[in-house]
Write a structure and sequence with these properties.
The structure holds three protein chains of three kinds.
Chain A: H1 3-37, H2 41-66, H3 85-105, H4 109-113, E1 116-120, H5 130-145, H6 149-153, H7 159-164, E2 166-170, H8 185-204, H9 209-214, H10 220-227, H11 245-273, H12 276-279, H13 282-301, H14 304-315, H15 319-343, H16 347-355, H17 360-399, H18 402-411, H19 415-443
Antiparallel strand pairs in A: 1-2
Helix pairs in contact in A: 2-3, 2-8, 3-5, 10-19, 11-15, 11-17, 11-18, 13-15, 14-15, 14-17, 15-17, 16-17, 17-18, 17-19, 18-19
Chain B: H1 8-46, H2 57-73, H3 77-82, E1 84-87, H4 90-99, H5 104-112, H6 119-124, E2 127-130, H7 142-161, H8 166-171, H9 177-184, H10 191-220, H11 230-248, H12 252-263, H13 267-291, H14 295-303, H15 308-347, H16 349-359, H17 363-391
Antiparallel strand pairs in B: 1-2
Helix pairs in contact in B: 1-2, 1-5, 1-7, 2-4, 9-17, 10-13, 10-15, 10-17, 11-13, 12-13, 12-15, 13-15, 14-15, 15-16, 15-17, 16-17
Chain C: E1 4-13, E2 18-28, E3 33-38, H1 44-51, E4 59-64, E5 67-68, H2 74-81, E6 84-87, H3 99-104, H4 113-118, H5 123-135, H6 151-164, E7 169-173, H7 181-197, E8 201-205, H8 209-215, E9 218-223, E10 226-231, H9 238-245
Parallel strand pairs in C: 3-8, 3-9, 6-7, 7-8
Antiparallel strand pairs in C: 1-2, 1-4, 4-5, 9-10
The chains are: A mainly alpha, B mainly alpha, C alpha/beta.
The structure holds adenosine-5'-triphosphate and magnesium ion.
Chain lengths: ~450, ~400, ~260
C-alpha cells in the first residue's frame, strides 16, 4: 500500500472518530439540557394551558347553558368569546399570573407531573421560607418576560432560582404521605380540572336527568313491544318487508359467519407477516412488517359502516354488501390480534426448530402454529360475536340482515316490531355468548 | 367409587347431565346440521330458502335417533362437552341405545340408583366415565367430521342466503370510481364543524365511562362469588350476574334506539346508551377481577378482628384499585370507538353526521368525518395504552 | 385456669370430605410457647385457624380465657379476635399498600368503623405503629410499598401488625417456611421476645424440628389430624421422630 494512502486513511479515521465523539458528546449534553429544561419550561406551559382550559371550559359551559337551541347547531357549541383586545390581554395575564403563583407557593400540577418541587438552596431542610417564595414569584416574572432566557442559558441554576435562594429538586417520595389531598395545590387543581371537565361534558352532551325521569312513558309502545314481543311476523314476512324476523336473523348470522371465516382465513397468513419476531429480519422484512401493521391499523380504524355504504353502491344494497364490510374490518382486527399473539409466543420451541435446521416455513409450522392455534380460535369466536353485533349496525346503512329490518321498522314507527326484533336479537346474542364463552373456556 | 354411593346432589347432577343434557346437546347439533343442510340444498336444488326440508317426521326421526345412536356408538358432542366416554361391550351399547329412548323417565329412574346410573347403563353393563379417549386428530373423530360438514354446509348456505355475487364485485367496480374520487378528496371545509362534533363524541364517551365506573364498581361487590356468601349473598350474586349478562346482550346500538325514543335523539341518548352498556361490561370485568384477588390479606385482616366493611376497605380495595382503573381506561377506549356507531342510529355527535353523509352517498363529507374519527380513535388508543402501561 | 383449652375438636371440610382434624384436645397455659409439628397435610393450619375461627370447627370447643369461642356472635368474635394476633407463612400483606397501612390494619379491631373507613387512625395508633416498626427494625421502611420488601422484612411487618393488636395469644402458621435459615432465626427471636417480655402465649406451627426444639417450651405433634405426641422438646427421641414423620424421614438441622 502506498504510504500517503495509508496516511490519508489514518487522518480520515481519526477525523471521523473525533467527529463521532463530538457528536455523541453534543447529544449527551443536549439531552442533559433538555432534562433540566423540561421541568421548568414545559411544566410551566402545562400549568398555563391548564388554566387557559379551565377558563375556556367555564366559559363554554356558560355559553352552552345560555343558548337553548344549540342542539340544532352543534357547530356553535364551541365558540371564541367576544373580547376586546384589552380583554384578551387581561385573560393572558390572569392565566400567567395564576400559573406562576401556584408554581411559587405550592407544588403545581405541572411540577407534580414532572416530579419536582421547590426546596431551599444549600440543603437546609425541605421547607421553603415564605420570603424566598415571594422572591421566586417575582423573579419568575422577569424570567418569563425574557422568554425563559435564564432557563435556556443556565438550566442547572437559572438566575431566578439563584436570586430566590431555592432549587428545584426531585420530589421526595413518601414525604407527605399523610397530608389530606385538599391541602396540596396540584391535587386541588386536578380536582377542579376534573370538575370543570365533567360540567363541560354535562353541558355538551346535553344531559337532562329531568327528561329521563319525565319521559319514561314516551316509548310506551316500545316498552310494550319489548315486554310482550309481537312475534306475528317471526316466520312470515311483514307485508312491507321481504324478510321475516327469523329470515333476517339467519342472514345476519350468516353474514357474521362468512365474514369471520373468510376474514380469519386471510388474516391468518398475514398475521405472520405482521409479527416482528417472524418477519422483521433484514430491511425487506422490516418493510413488510411495517406495511402489514400499517394496513391493519388503518383498516381497523375505518368503521365497517363506511365500507357497507361504499359496497352498497358497488354491489347493490343487501346482505352481500354488509358481508364485505364486516369482512374487511375483520381482516384488520383479527390480523392485529393474531400478530400480537405471534409476537408473544415462547421463543424456546422456535429456537429448537431453527437449531434443528428448519427453514422459516417449517419453523412456523412446527414451532409457532401449535402455540398460537388455541388463542387464535378464541379470538375468532370472539370476533364472530362482535361481527354479529356489528351486523345490525351495518344493516342501517345498506348492509341487509336484521339491521335493515330494524331500521325499516324504526323509521316506519312500528314500535312493537322494533321490540320484537330487539328481543329476538338480544336472546340470540345471549345464547351465542353463552355457548361461545363455554367453548372458549374449553379451548384455551 | 366408595361403597356409600353418591349423595343425592351428585346423583341428580349425573342423571341430569347424562340423561338429559347430553342427548339434548346432541339433538341440537343434529338439528343445526339438518337446518344448514336444508338451506344449502334448498339453494342448490330450488334456488330459494328452505329452513327445514322433508316431511315433519323425517328430521325428527333423524335428530332423535341420530342423537341416541351417536351417544351409544361414538363420542357425541354432548359427551365431549361433558368430558365423558362410554365404556362397554357392543351388546351393552345396543341395550343402552334401546333403553335410552326412555329419555327423561330414564333420568328419573337414575335417581333411584345409588350410583345415579341410567337404566341403559345398568341393564347393558356399560358406564359413562370421566375422561377422554386417547388423543386423535380431529379428522378421526365423529365430532370433527360433523363440525367440518356443518361448517361446509353453513358456508355454502351462507353464500346462497346472502346472495353472494362475485361477478358484481368485478363488473360494477367502474361505477364506484366517482365515489372513490370523493373519498380521496375529503371536504376540508367541514374541518371546524367536524372537530366540534368530534369533541361532542369525545365527551359522550367520557361521560359514559366516568359515570359507569362507580356504578359498576359498587355492583361488582355483589357480583363476586368470593364476597357473597350465605343465604342472602348467594341469591343476590346470581341475580346480579344474570341481570348483567342479559343486559349485556342488548347491544349499545339497540340501547341508543331505545333512549332515542325516550329522551329524544341526540348526544344525551348516545351517552345513556354507552353508559348502560359500559356498566354491564365493566361489571363483568370488575367482578372477575374481584374473584381473582389474593385471599391471604383478606384472611389476615379478618384475623385482626376487623368488620366486613373494614376487611373490604383494607384488604380488598387496595388490591383492585389499579386493575379497575386499567379496565376503565380500556372501556373508555372502546367507548370512543362505539360513540361513533351509536351516534349513527340517533345518538348525536360526529357519528350522526357521518351516518347522514353515508346514506346520502356524500363521500367527500363522509371521508372528512371518518378521518377525524380515526385521528381521535388513534389518539385515545395511544393515550389509554400509555396510561394502562403506567398502572401495571 | 388454662389460657386456651381445646376440647375434642373435629374439622371435616365439606369440599372433598376431608377429615382434617379428629378429636383433638389439649390445654395451653398462659405464657407457653407451644410448637405444632407434623407432616404436610396433618392439620396444623386447620387447627390454628380453628382457634380464631377463620375456619369453622365441625364439632368441639375452643375455650379462650373461659369463653367458648365457637359460640360467639359475630360481634363478640371480632372482639375476641383482636386479642389474638396471627402471623402467616405467606405473610399475607396487602402488597400494594404501604408498610404503615399494613401495620395499622392491626388496630382495626379497636378503632370505630367510620374512622377506619375514612382512614383516620387516632394519633396514638400512629405512634404505636412507629414503636412496633422500630421494634422490628423497619422504621425507615414505613412509607415503602409492602412488595418492595424482602421476605424477611415482610414477615417482620406481619409481626408488627400482630404487635399492634397487643395480643394475649399469637398464632403463627409456619412463620419461617418461606425464609432462609438465618432470617428464620431472627424472625423466631422476635416471636420469642414477644413470648418472654410481653407474656404472650404463642402457638406456632413449624416444619423443622430443630427450630421447634430451640424455641418451643412444649411440642404437640399431629399426624392425620390426631395428636401423636404432646410433651417437652427433649422428649422427642428418634423413635418418636419416626412415628411422627414416617419411617424414611431424616432429621434436618437448621442453624
Ligand atoms: N379449604 C379446604 N377445603 C378442603 N380441604 C382442605 C382445605 N384446607 C385444607 N384442607 C385439607 O385438610 C387437610 C389438612 O390441611 P392443613 O392445611 O391443615 O395441613 P397442614 O398441616 O397445615 O399442612 P402444610 O404443612 O402443608 O401447611 C389436608 O388434607 C388438606 O387437603
Ligand atoms: Mg399449613
Amino acid at each position: 500500500m502506498k504510504e500517503w494512502l495509508f496516511l490519508v486513511r489514518r487522518r480520515f479515521r481519526s477525523w471521523a472518530t473525533s467527529l463521532l465523539t463530538w457528536l455523541h458528546g453534543a447529544y449527551v449534553a443536549f439531552s442533559q439540557w433538555v432534562r433540566l429544561v423540561r421541568p421548568r419550561l414545559i411544566s410551566f406551559l402545562f400549568d398555563w394551558i391548564a388554566w387557559v382550559y379551565l377558563l375556556y371550559a367555564g366559559f363554554s359551559v356558560h355559553h352552552i347553558r345560555t343558548s337553548p337551541t344549540l342542539i340544532w347547531r352543534p357547530e356553535e357549541k364551541f365558540v371564541l368569546p367576544e373580547l376586546s383586545p384589552t380583554g384578551w390581554i387581561v385573560v393572558l395575564l390572569v392565566t400567567i399570573e395564576l400559573a406562576l403563583f401556584v408554581r411559587s407557593f405550592g407544588v403545581s400540577l405541572g411540577q407534580r407531573a414532572f416530579g419536582v418541587s421547590l426546596a431551599p438552596a444549600g440543603g437546609s431542610g425541605t421547607r421553603v421560607a415564605f420570603p424566598r417564595r415571594v422572591l421566586h414569584f417575582l423573579a419568575s416574572h422577569l424570567a418569563l418576560a425574557s422568554l425563559g432566557l435564564p432557563v435556556l442559558v443556565n438550566p442547572e441554576r437559572p438566575w431566578h432560582e439563584r436570586v430566590a435562594g431555592v432549587v428545584l429538586v426531585p420530589r421526595a417520595r413518601g414525604a407527605s404521605r399523610y397530608r389530606p389531598w385538599w391541602t396540596s395545590a396540584y391535587a386541588l387543581t386536578a380536582a377542579v380540572l376534573i370538575g370543570v371537565t365533567v360540567a363541560l361534558g354535562w353541558a355538551v352532551t346535553d344531559i337532562q336527568l329531568g327528561a329521563l325521569v319525565r319521559d319514561v312513558g314516551k316509548p310506551a309502545r316500545l316498552w310494550r313491544g319489548l315486554s310482550r314481543p309481537d312475534l306475528s311476523y317471526f316466520f312470515t314476512p311483514h307485508p312491507m318487508e321481504t324478510d321475516s324476523i327469523f329470515g333476517a336473523l339467519v342472514k345476519s348470522l350468516f353474514m357474521a359467519l362468512l365474514a369471520t371465516v373468510l376474514g380469519a382465513a386471510i388474516a391468518f397468513p398475514l398475521s405472520f407477516l405482521g409479527a416482528r419476531n417472524i418477519t422483521a429480519t433484514g430491511p425487506v422484512g422490516r418493510l413488510v412488517y411495517a406495511l402489514t401493521r400499517g394496513f391493519f391499523n388503518v383498516f381497523r380504524s375505518i368503521e365497517s359502516i363506511f365500507w357497507a355504504s361504499i359496497f352498497a353502491i358497488w354491489v347493490g344494497f343487501g346482505a352481500f354488501a354488509g358481508t364485505i364490510a364486516l369482512f374487511l374490518h375483520t381482516i384488520a382486527a383479527l390480523g392485529k390480534l393474531y400478530s400480537e399473539q405471534v409476537e408473544h409466543i415462547d421463543p424456546g420451541p422456535v429456537e429448537a426448530a431453527t437449531a434443528a435446521g428448519g427453514n422459516r416455513l417449517q419453523v412456523i409450522k412446527q414451532a409457532v402454529i401449535p402455540q398460537v392455534l388455541p388463542p387464535f380460535l378464541a379470538f375468532t369466536l370472539y370476533r364472530w360475536d362482535i361481527n354479529l353485533r356489528m351486523a345490525t349496525v351495518v344493516g342501517f346503512v345498506g348492509g341487509g340482515g336484521i339491521g335493515l329490518l330494524l331500521k325499516n321498522f324504526k323509521d316506519g314507527g312500528e314500535w312493537t316490531q322494533v321490540g320484537a326484533v330487539i328481543v329476538t336479537f338480544a336472546v340470540t346474542v345471549w345464547l351465542l355468548d353463552f355457548v361461545s364463552g363455554w367453548v372458549r373456556e374449553r379451548i384455551v | 367409587m366408595s361403597g356409600e354411593g353418591l349423595p343425592v346432589l351428585g346423583r341428580l347432577r349425573r342423571a341430569f347431565t347424562l340423561g338429559l343434557l347430553v342427548p339434548a346437546a346432541d339433538a341440537l347439533v343434529l338439528a343445526l346440521l339438518w337446518f344448514v343442510g336444508s338451506l344449502f340444498f334448498g339453494f342448490l336444488l330450488h334456488g330459494r330458502e328452505v329452513y327445514f326440508a322433508g316431511p315433519w317426521w323425517l328430521p325428527l326421526l333423524v335428530i332423535v335417533e341420530g342423537a341416541l345412536l351417536w351417544a351409544a356408538w361414538g363420542r357425541s358432542p354432548g359427551m365431549v362437552l361433558a368430558g365423558v366416554v362410554l365404556r362397554g361391550s357392543a351388546r351393552g351399547r345396543f341395550l343402552y341405545w334401546a333403553l335410552s329412548h326412555l329419555g327423561p323417565v330414564g333420568a328419573g329412574l337414575a335417581l333411584l340408583d345409588r350410583e345415579g346410573r341410567l337404566p341403559g347403563e345398568r341393564v347393558g353393563g356399560v358406564e359413562f366415565v370421566e375422561g377422554r379417549p386417547t388423543h386423535r386428530p380431529w379428522y378421526r373423530t365423529s365430532v370433527g367430521w360433523a363440525a367440518a360438514l356443518g361448517m361446509a354446509l353453513a358456508l355454502g348456505a351462507a353464500v346462497g342466503t346472502l346472495q353472494i355475487d362475485l361477478q358484481a364485485l368485478l363488473t360494477k367496480a367502474p361505477a364506484t370510481v366517482k365515489y372513490w374520487q370523493q373519498v380521496l378528496r375529503p371536504n376540508t371545509s367541514l374541518l371546524t364543524l367536524g372537530i366540534q362534533l368530534l369533541i361532542e363524541t369525545f365527551f359522550m364517551a367520557l361521560m359514559a365511562t366516568l359515570f359507569a365506573a362507580p356504578v359498576a364498581a359498587a355492583l361488582s361487590f355483589l357480583a363476586a362469588r368470593n364476597l357473597t356468601r350465605g343465604w342472602i349473598g348467594r341469591p343476590v350474586y346470581l341475580l346480579v350476574r344474570l341481570a348483567g349478562s342479559i343486559t349485556r346482550s342488548v347491544d349499545a346500538v339497540l340501547w341508543a334506539i331505545i333512549f332515542g325514543v325516550w329522551v329524544g335523539m341526540g348526544s344525551f341518548a348516545g351517552s345513556l346508551a354507552l353508559w348502560v352498556h359500559s356498566i354491564v361490561d365493566l361489571l363483568k370485568l370488575y367482578a372477575d377481577q374481584l374473584e381473582s384477588i389474593d385471599p391471604g390479606p383478606v384472611e389476615a385482616v379478618t384475623a385482626t378482628g376487623a368488620s366486613r366493611l373494614e376487611v373490604i376497605r383494607y384488604a380488598v380495595i387496595p388490591q383492585i384499585v389499579n386493575p379497575y382503573l386499567s379496565f376503565t381506561l380500556y372501556r373508555w377506549d372502546i367507548n370512543v370507538r362505539m360513540a361513533t356507531v351509536v351516534g349513527l342510529v340517533g345518538g348525536g355527535g360526529i357519528g350522526f353526521r357521518l351516518g347522514g353523509a353515508l346514506t346520502d352517498f356524500n363521500f367527500s363529507n363522509a371521508s372528512m368525518y371518518m378521518i377525524l374519527v380515526i385521528v381521535l380513535v388513534w389518539a385515545i388508543d395511544y393515550l389509554s395504552a400509555r396510561l394502562r402501561a403506567k398502572l401495571a | 385456669m388454662a389460657h386456651l383449652v381445646i376440647e375434642s375438636l373435629t374439622k371435616i371440610y365439606e369440599r372433598g370430605k376431608v377429615r382434617a382434624l379428629t378429636d383433638v384436645s389439649f390445654e395451653v397455659e398462659r405464657g407457653e410457647f407451644l410448637v405444632l409439628i407434623g407432616l404436610s397435610g396433618s392439620g396444623k393450619s386447620t387447627l390454628l385457624r380453628c382457634v380464631n375461627r377463620l375456619v369453622e370447627p365441625t364439632t368441639g370447643r375452643v375455650v379462650l380465657d373461659g369463653v367458648d369461642v365457637t359460640r360467639l356472635s359475630p360481634r363478640a368474635l371480632r372482639r375476641t379476635r383482636r386479642k389474638i394476633g396471627m402471623v402467616f407463612q405467606q405473610f399475607n400483606l396487602v402488597k400494594r399498600s404501604s408498610v404503615l397501612a399494613n401495620v395499622l390494619t392491626g388496630r382495626l379491631g379497636y378503632v370505630p368503623t367510620w374512622r377506619a373507613l375514612l382512614g383516620r387512625f387516632p394519633k396514638e395508633d400512629l405512634e404505636r405503629a412507629r414503636r412496633a416498626l422500630s421494634r422490628v427494625g423497619l422504621l425507615e421502611k414505613m412509607y415503602a410499598r409492602a412488595d418492595e420488601l424482602s421476605g424477611g422484612q415482610q414477615q417482620r411487618v406481619g409481626i408488627a401488625r400482630a404487635l399492634m393488636q397487643e395480643p394475649e395469644l399469637l398464632l403463627a402458621d409456619e412463620p419461617v417456611s418461606a425464609l432462609d435459615p438465618a432470617t428464620s432465626h431472627s424472625i423466631m427471636q422476635y416471636l420469642e421476645q414477644m413470648n418472654r417480655e410481653d407474656g404472650v402465649t404463642v402457638l406456632a406451627s413449624l416444619h423443622f424440628l430443630s427450630l421447634a426444639r430451640r424455641y418451643g417450651t412444649r411440642i404437640i405433634a399431629l399426624k392425620d389430624g390426631r395428636i401423636v405426641f404432646d410433651g417437652p422438646p427433649g422428649a422427642i427421641d428418634n423413635a418418636k421422630f419416626k412415628e411422627i414423620y414416617g419411617e424414611d424421614a431424616e432429621e434436618v438441622e437448621v442453624r
